Write a sequence for this structure.
């Protein structure tokens, strides 16, 4: 741009730019719901609450004024996954944008755990394939919160894929969704009476696990998380997608990939994918 044309550009003060940015943000985002993980909450002496919301790629500052803090339905803690409602604005003094919070609610796993705390349940029937969290992880967290709540896993995956892993995690039974309705009733009644329900397929898995035969398939030696990463890689997902699905950092997913490659004596994703297909580990919907 020539010097003469540059001189024709409008001139603003710093305050004018800051006010214009603030106005633009508030006009375009007057009411939003933002989902993210809470980071470094600070209940300030002034009564205001400051924290950040983050995901895998970005961070946004958040503020809840003291008049609203007392109306929040939960105490904000580091690491919580929440959905915050409010308006996007900016603080001209530092030119930073932020979300001004009106309300906060738990999201994902946290929402379910809160619901389990608030109500009395006789049994929890859970799918292993959840949209934003591993069902295996959730079983472990539920058992930590309430070891007396029996869990029946009802899944699309065959027993030899996840039955042993869910039982080891703390479930009281495992059924494939293709099982007859009568078997679901039978399993529920058995678990409610204080027992554990295993059908013939699961029983065979238990026997195989107890024997720990040397000729067991390679994937049987993987940890639950390594097994999940294997199946997601084989389904064609990239590290970034897997990290989002499992709520892990890309670096952590890469570490699990390295571990399972070493355990299975393989070097590439292509080898993992071929193995998974040969052993029936890949389904249309992988979780």
């Amino acid at each position: 741009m020539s010097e003469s044309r540059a001189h024709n550009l409008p001139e603003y003060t710093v305050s004018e730019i800051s006010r214009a940015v603030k106005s633009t943000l508030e006009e375009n985002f007057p009411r939003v719901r933002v989902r993210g993980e809470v980071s470094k909450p600070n209940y300030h002496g002034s009564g205001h609450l400051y924290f950040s919301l983050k995901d895998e790629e970005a961070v946004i500052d958040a503020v809840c004024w003291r008049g609203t803090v007392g109306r929040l339905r939960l105490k904000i803690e580091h690491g919580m996954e929440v959905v915050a409602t409010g308006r996007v604005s900016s603080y001209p003094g530092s030119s930073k944008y932020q979300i001004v919070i009106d309300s906060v609610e738990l999201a994902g796993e946290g929402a379910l755990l809160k619901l389990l705390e608030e109500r009395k349940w006789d049994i929890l029937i859970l799918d292993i394939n959840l949209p934003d969290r591993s069902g295996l992880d959730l079983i472990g967290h539920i058992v930590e919160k309430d070891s007396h709540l029996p869990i029946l896993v009802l899944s699309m995956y065959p027993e030899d894929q996840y039955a042993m892993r869910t039982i080891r995690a703390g479930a009281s039974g495992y059924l494939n969704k293709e099982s007859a309705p009568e078997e679901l009733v039978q399993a529920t009644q058995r678990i409610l009476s204080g027992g554990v329900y295993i059908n013939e397929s699961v029983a065979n898995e238990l026997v195989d696990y107890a024997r720990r035969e040397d000729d067991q398939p390679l994937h049987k030696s993987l940890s639950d998380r390594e097994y999940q990463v294997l199946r997601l890689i084989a389904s064609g997902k990239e590290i970034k997608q897997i990290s989002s699905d499992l709520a892990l950092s890309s670096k952590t997913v890469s570490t699990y990939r390295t571990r399972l490659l070493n355990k299975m004596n393989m070097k590439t994703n292509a080898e993992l994918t071929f193995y998974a297909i040969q052993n029936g580990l890949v389904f249309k919907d992988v979780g």
Remarks:
- Residues 221-287 form a domain with the Arc Repressor Mutant, subunit A fold (CATH 1.10.10.10).
- The two ends are 53 Å apart (CA to CA).
